[in-house]
Amino acid sequence: MESLIQLFCALFAPILNLIPGVIAERLHVFCLRHRMTRKEQVYFLQNYAKLISDGFKINEALTILKTEYLETLGKDCSEVKFCTEALRQMGDEGALSVSDAMSNWFFPVFTQVISVSTTSKNTSQALEDLLENFNRWEAVRKELLSILKTPVLLTVGSLFATTMISMYGLKLVGGDKFEKNLTDLSAFFHAYGVWAEQNIKLVLLVMLFLTLVYFYALFNVNSDFRRVLDSNIPGFGLYQAFQAANFYTIMAILVSPSGGNLKLKEALEEFENNNDLTSDYLATHIAEMFRRAEIDGLSNLEQLNTGLLPLKMKIRLGIAGKTKGGLTMVTTFQSISQNLAEDYKDQIKHRMRNLSQSAMFFSVVLVFFSVLAMLDVAFSRLDSTML
What we know:
Blueprint: H1 2-16, H2 22-32, H3 38-53, H4 58-73, H5 78-91, H6 98-102, H7 108-119, H8 123-174, H9 184-220, H10 226-232, H11 236-255, H12 264-273, H13 280-296, H14 311-322, H15 329-386
Helix pairs in contact: 1-2, 3-4, 3-8, 4-5, 7-8, 7-11, 8-9, 8-11, 8-15, 9-15, 10-11, 11-15, 12-13, 14-15
Family: Belongs to the GSP F family.
Keywords: Cell membrane, Membrane, Transmembrane, Transmembrane helix
Domain Type II secretion system protein GspF: 44-165
């Protein structure tokens, strides 16, 4: 999949750069950020984190990485091009930070990783914590995709087989005049085949439109209605949990004595003021936290419960807000971020199993009756030839 995306980006990125408009601009940035695959970006950051943890400065680390990638993969690899551009921007153009140079090369989540690590007293530990959080969710994503693959393939395969049987299979086994001897079952599938043949282009366009609407809503709808979507639409809950894990992982670093050593409100202000740290989705929740702070004062952790967390994590946050000592902000945030992936995975796997069973039942029944209709037409033709 990533190879196809990179091929698309290589072909259309130069063209998109010439087209005015917000959508073309976003697509161009999307293409720029896919010059390296997800694995390549993670591997690069892991090497970068290792050098930083060994005491190298940012410029020194980038220079070493550039040299190693140049000797190993050659001057045309994306990592070498990034290091060259980043060193130039940070040196000649005076970019504020390495995260600025990364913005058009890495996915936003990785830009967050670098941005947060630079605010921490222990940069290498911050990088390790954030990459560990990403790797947890990458494992969840892969496992859920492997589970989801079965019901999706079954459903798509059964619909395709049924459509082909209805459009062409009945006529193939029944001959040119098969409509004269149709039973109720075969008549139903024949009617569906006629409808599908007449409307197949419209159906495909509607499916494409719904897919675009789904992904647009996933990343751009942030109103109060978003909570309904998070609770009821597949995939939205995963995005919500991933955003929550990012938020609490970063908050743990910002308030940690060995990290940013900020107070709770100061950490939220850091989120609000730093575009690298937040997304439009998180911004709505942070705005709600500040609204509560204006009314009651930001005095306890329960005020961070804005609907961003699943039920088990809400309980943990509520208990932390009521205890005197015991669970500190840092340990609470770390506990939430570390357990969110596992908690969400258990919850969604149960739903996926039910979905998979339903898809299997639907697929088997659909194909069974469509094949039965085809056999019905075939036997009707056989009977008519014997009379």
